[in-house]
Amino acid sequence: MIRLENIKKSFGALSAVDDISLHIRKGELFSFLGPNGAGKTTTIKMIVGLMFPDAGKIFIDGQDIALEPISPKQIIGYVPDSAFLYDKLTGMEYFQVIGNFFKMSALEIEEKVRHYQEILGFENWLNQRIEGYSQGMRQRMIFASAFIHEPRILIIDEPMVGLDPGSARTIKRLLKEKAEAGTTIFLSTHNLNVAEELSTRIGIIQKGKLRAVGTMNTLRGQVKSDGNLEDLFLEMIESDS
Amino acid sequence: MKWLLNILKLRVTSYLGQAGSLIKIKRLEISVSATIIIGMVVGSYFLFLKGAQFLYHQGEIGGLFLDRMFYVGWSIIFSLLILSNVITAFTTLYRSKEVSFLLTMPVSYSDIFRIKFLENMIYSSWALLILGFPLTLAYSSVKALSAAEMAWMLALGLPPFLMIATGIGLGFLMVAIWLSQWFHLRTIFVAIVILFIAIFWIYFRGGHQNLPILGDAANFRAIDRYLLNLARPPFPLMPSHWLSEMVRALSEKNPGHLIFYWVLMATSANVAWITAGSLSGKMYFSTFQFMEWNSGYRKNQKSNQRSSVANRFHWMPSPTRGIVIKDILQFARTPQQWVQLLLFGFFIGIYLMNLTRIDIQVNSMIPFWKNVIYVFNFGFSGYIIAALTVRFVFPLISMEGQAVWIIRTSPFSIIRLFREKFWMSFVVFFPLAEVVAMVSNYFLQQGLAVSIISTLFLLAMSISLISLSLGLGSVYAQFRETNPMKISSGAGGIITIIISLFFVAIMVLAMVGVIYLKDIPDMKVAIMWIISGILALNGLMIYYPLKWGHRALTRMEF
């Protein structure tokens, strides 16, 4: 569903992403881990089309996004790490705008909004302007707007930022359900518990290079440890630095 | 008071530091802006000087006209200052993160208001530089005042003059926001603009009378009455009148008169400072809180209610509808944007009102002057589109702001984005320019051929100027800047306005060519060549900026 082939990205002398290749299959929940500045967000931005690789290719559902930049976006839902939205719009208006971008009918938009407002609990805020929302409320809005067109691929950068424990649990449950229903999820996070709990496979990136990819068991085999993901992660990062 | 001085000192140091680093980083941008501002000030000085000299040498009536011109000039500046204060104060007083910080300090609300009062006064007095200084320098030069006398006069007269305008503007805004607890803020602002138009209308009707043309005046009494009115300003209670009286007193070496008007001005400024300060003690914090709370909350609306704007555009294709709804709602909810558009409309309205008065004398004009006024008017229409496009179209792409990721990650092509922004701008700005052209065609009694050609020229000019601003606005996009005024006054905006004005000048020259050649026999081919050349030029002006803008946006990373 998502295939990265030898992608590279540099900012001047800094090599942010260095020759990464990955293949994430349909229905997989892939967690992308790494310390700050490892190249996680850069990789994600290249997948969703906010940045362009200096070298290599990215395929979404078999389509090269360099050649087909628009149509793959129809099946992607993106949750960025920063919560910038159209502040002057109300929540409902924002959903209408997003729904229109994805060619949804007014009825479809309303149905989906009703569905997600119940799950994520923002019904009392829908007619208020986004500029008055808290960080957590914005994050819930971003999740809902990434979900409403029922994308086949979800790209999520730091999902739990600003969420209260209740909402964080709801999001985890939603992601699990979506993966089980066949949605491919690419998740970048610092929250190792979330990654351990949800992922089918995990990738660890450091200094732009992919250090390890595999299931929890494969990773354990690589560092010869029986610990949890936190121990594995720290061991790998420390041994490489 | 000590606290106030400390903050002021801190502010000056911080601005000096900022200026220092800006000069290092944005040398080109600053030199271009400085050259343009100096050019405008010097240019307007010479323009005013020529006009003032011409008036002054028209015998007794010339002096009266000169004084009236000076008074009207400062009255316009005073009105602009009040409006400018209202617009700037919205950001300085109610949208400033510094205010939120200062409110956590052990300082009274009135003190915070006072520091913001002074800050706002400085921010909003730019109009003086462009219009006031050249006007005053030209006037004083004709009245043979020395530079030292003028410097003293300005040093004494300007601070209280500015304070009165700021006091009125800030008072207006506080009351408007206080009223917005019961009425929509947009309604209040529209009411203020209508009030302004009404005041101006009264001023216009009451303060002016048609020039008695020799032979038309019934008797000498009519001329006498005209001269008497000319010498008497219609609004003697306006600070602009006091300021012009001070300059006049100085030129007539009348110290009593000078001191009287200065004391009048200074005491009024003091009253404005104290009144606004005490009003702030009662209203500033409550209105600030209200704005913070009001920024997101709207009462009496059913949850899940679909936007009425969305309903109105249901006939549009989906992705375009989304961006249209977003742009309209964002524009309508950003007072900085629509208040300025209203002001533009207000000034265009005044211009058209003036134009209607030409009707009285147009029949007695020789064709040369009729054509001169017509060409000037055509240029003015072009200037309107140029100014409007740079101010409103240039920042359109940048105004996507840090939420630009939404568009870039949606299945929405850049071409479609351009198309939407282009048509949204076109349907607003082309009719505005066309109305000016049609009204002038009518009142200047131009023939059908010239009217058609000028309409076509304006159509081409509108499309080109919108494309230019949209394209270069994408090349010089600033997604981190939230203030549209700052976006359009940056380096990219300055380059765009220079190219736009240059382009308008070429279009005006082409129009002159058409008007000149139309009455000469066998010149149809030459006219066709001019029209073809203009069409080709417009083609280039449309294609290249959009191409550059498209390329820049497609390659841009976020």
Write the layout of secondary structure elements.
The complex is a heterodimer of chains A (241) and B (558).
Chain A: E1 2-11, E2 14-24, E3 29-33, H1 40-48, E4 55-60, E5 63-64, E6 76-79, H2 91-101, H3 106-120, H4 135-147, E7 153-157, H5 165-180, E8 184-188, H6 192-198, E9 201-206, E10 209-214, H7 216-223, H8 229-240
Parallel strand pairs in A: 3-8, 3-9, 6-7, 7-8
Antiparallel strand pairs in A: 1-2, 1-4, 4-5, 9-10
Chain B: H1 2-25, H2 27-56, H3 59-94, H4 97-102, H5 109-123, H6 126-142, H7 147-179, H8 185-207, H9 220-231, H10 239-251, H11 255-294, H12 308-312, H13 318-332, H14 335-358, H15 367-393, H16 404-408, H17 414-443, H18 448-475, H19 484-488, H20 491-517, H21 524-555
Work out the radius of gyration of chain B. Answer: 26 Å
Distance from first to last alpha carbon of chain A:
32 Å
Q: Write down how many β-strands of chain A occur, each being a DSSP E stretch of 2 or more residues.
A: 10
Strand and helix order of chain A:
EEEHEEEHHHEHEHEEHH
Oligomer: heterodimer
The CATH topology name of the largest domain in chain A reads Rossmann fold
Description:
The complex is a heterodimer of chains A (241) and B (558). The longest helix of chain A is centred in the last third of the chain and has 16 residues, at 165-180. Chain A has a six-stranded mixed beta sheet, sandwiched between helices. Chain A has a four-stranded antiparallel beta sheet with strand order 2-1-4-5, with helices on one face. In chain A, 38% of the residues lie in helices and 25% in strands. Chain A has 241 residues and is α/β, with parallel strands linked by helices. Chain A folds into two domains: 1-65 and 151-192 and 202-241, Rossmann fold; 85-150, no CATH class. Chain B is mainly alpha-helical. Chain B has helices spanning 2-25, 27-56, 59-94, 97-102, 109-123, 126-142, 147-179, 185-207, 220-231, 239-251, 255-294, 308-312, 318-332, 335-358, 367-393, 404-408, 414-443, 448-475, 484-488, 491-517, 524-555. The longest helix of chain B is centred in the middle third of the chain and has 40 residues, at 255-294. The relative contact order of chain B is 0.07. The A-B interface holds A 45, 48-52, 70-71, 73-74, 76, 78, 80, 82, 84-90, 92-93, 96-104, 106, 110, 113-114, 117, 123-124, 126-133 and B 293, 295-298, 301-307, 309-310, 314, 318-319, 321-323, 325-326, 329-330, 333-334, 401-403, 405-413, 555, 557-558.
